[in-house]
């Protein structure tokens, strides 16, 4: 009998709250990281994610107990039909697709990178230089060209019209 | 003969007119430099040095950055020169001496006695295409974190430091990150502020061969007192919140004229 079955048995009306707790796997990981003496371990233990299911929902097929989910701080947005979006991110705080990557690039829990550094890497790569030259007519790689190239890329992902998904 | 009288009169009039204008050729252009000298009251501002605000709180500063934009220069005759917008965005940073002197080129020759500018970035530019965000405005170039990537807006004014009045749980640090251009399609916080600094009777004389330097004082103590008294203890961390408008209403009063070199 699974954890979910167990909990569901005791509560037939209210949504079943299933709590998953981290097991030793992470503990081993953290232990492995702490082998430099005197250095504070800064890896925070992820919090378990509680999943509530209405009582009339079927049992999950995926065996969550083998891979207990934990809370994440970031969730990506759907990326189809970006051509038609007026705002971006869950709170709609962004109004231009060109600026969307800056958040993911700079944020410390995502790429923790700087655009300056990315541009320097691209400029040191002959292949990218020639690709920028053929796309924009000059080898110069600027933040504008870089961000516009990312937008072109994401715009080509999906348009739902005549799409087989 | 009448001409004998008229001709010298005209010549004299022209000569006097010439004196009046101090030989200003309005077709000439020159440049003007504006120095933003950060201070704490009478003292030149230095990082990690203790100052006391009007509420008696001791504090020091570890970061001070602000945008200056949309500069206009007023002549003694009341006419204005509006600096072309594309050349009118500057980021002043306390830890970058070069950034503290703003140079404006192609200024029509004349005597100027007031400077008007915005602290922050106007709403139009804040919503422009990425290709219009060059130099100090390039959000991809870092600029010491003067851009909020989650709501696509510039941080107009950023000041950080340490004070015993700030809570221990944030290591006695205080943070003021003030921005907000009024919202893209629905109104949000608007902290765009403009100030006019009068040169108290002095004049910046712009000529083709003369580049005056106007020295402004920027007093951080005003942030805590003018006109609203702000205690670090009550507001140790102000970012995108309603109280930020009280802070911008104070920091707009940090700027004053000190002297000019012609």
Query: What oligomerization state is this entry in?
Result: heterodimer
Radius of gyration of chain A: 23 Å
Count of distinct strands of chain A:
2
Tell me about the largest β-sheet of chain A.
2 strands, antiparallel
Rounded average pLDDT of chain B = 91
Portion of residues in beta strands of chain B equals 35-45%
Regions with little confidence, pLDDT below 50 for 5+ residues of chain A: 1-41
Order of helical and strand elements of chain B: HEEEEEEEEHEEEEEEEHE
Biggest interface, chains and residues, is: A-B, 21 and 18 residues
List low-confidence stretches of chain B: 14-21
Overview of the molecule:
The complex is a heterodimer of chains A (165) and B (262). With 165 residues, chain A is mainly alpha-helical. Chain A has six helices and two strands; from the N terminus they run αβαβαααα. By secondary structure, chain B is mainly β. In chain B, 12% of the residues lie in helices and 40% in strands. Chain B contains three helices and 16 strands. In chain B, strands 3, 4, 5, 6, 8, 9, 10, 11, 12, 13 and 15 form an eleven-stranded mixed β-sheet that branches. The radius of gyration of chain B is 22 Å and the shape is globular. Residues 14-21 of chain B have low confidence and may be disordered. At the A-B interface, α3 and α6 of A face loops of B.
Main attributes of the structure:
A: 165 residues, mainly alpha, two-stranded antiparallel ribbon, 2 strands, 4% strand, elongated, disordered N terminus, B: 262 residues, mainly beta, eleven-stranded mixed beta sheet, five-stranded mixed beta sheet, 16 strands
Short description:
The complex is a heterodimer of chains A (165) and B (262). Chain A has 165 residues and is mostly helical.
